Amino acid sequence: MRRRDFIALVGGAAVACPFAARAQQPGMPVIGFLNIASPRAFAGFVAAFHRGLNAGGYVEGRNVAIEYRWAEGDFDRLREQAADLVRRHVAVLVATGGTTTALLAKNATETIPILFISGANPVDEGLVTSFSRPGGNATGVSVYTSQLVGKRLELLRELLPGGAIIALLGNPTGVVHKLETKDLNQVMNAAGLQLLVLEVTDESGFEAAFASAVQQRAGGLLVSADAFFTSKRDQIIEFAARHRLPAAYPWREYALADGLMSYGASIPDAYRLIGDYTARILNGAKPADLPVQQPTTFNLVLNLKTANSLGLQIPATLLATADEVIE
Questions:
Q1: Shortest CA distance to 135 belongs to which of 108, 104, 114?
Q2: What pTM did the predictor assign?
Q3: What is the rounded distance in angstroms from the CA atom of residue 222 to the CA atom of residue 225?
Q4: For residue range 1-54, what is the model confidence (pLDDT) as tens digits?
Q5: What is the DSSP string of 131-194?
């Protein structure tokens, strides 16, 4: 078993957040960095982006400038920020924080290179023509978030075999929500289970959503891979603990912050890959020629401390399949 604590994450956040604006030298290329969430919550991810960028020979403030735009969960603001970066004629537009951000960037420009991190299938969503030959002005990383929700349900059911009602915390303004809900409804109907969809679009909705889950006797909770929820992971984990609701999350960062379990690809790896692609584009590569990257590993992380606080005994079979166990 590999043991992890918060030191690495907090250390990365201390370095990465906040990224102060730095003086731009004449002739220095400018990267537009666009994200639906907040800088503090995504500090570790942005640090990973910088690692990829640095490995490609670019260092912010030395030979490249970065214009950061954080929408703090406001999609209207995100649209305006995308348009602003396009007006500034940035050399490359890095659209992070999910498929919705990528689509807004794609709608804002047909000429500026776009690099995305998508939770949905980028071909189905019209971001690229194919994974191997994206075509157009966009490419990036697909992290399979919408396809993995069924696996997280399977893992949660293994931990909670008697749960007939499972809740999904979703954001209806995001692209991934529709896909996750569709997939879960099909799986749960076939298994004779009931899906309780809890829709939240801002932080003020969490209290009512969790109260509804308890009132309707949900046995467990699935949290959507939506970037807004990732940015509010500490609050979500706190609500889950307060209401004693076992929850499965999409990213390791949730389990590190005392979430019960997570299953998914590495988001820091995705941001590092985007940093690498950004450097390649600054060196003359075209998005149409850079294949959409896909994760090769998906990790199950279990938090024993949280399981014990909920009075749960994690089955030996589940422990044996875990890639990381936090004690």
A1: 114
A2: 0.89
A3: 9
A4: 444 443 333 333 333 333 444 445 668 999 999 999 999 999 999 999 999 999
A5: SS---TTEEEEE--HHHHHHHHHHHHHHH-TT--EEEEEE-TTSHHHHHHHHHHHHHHHHHT-E
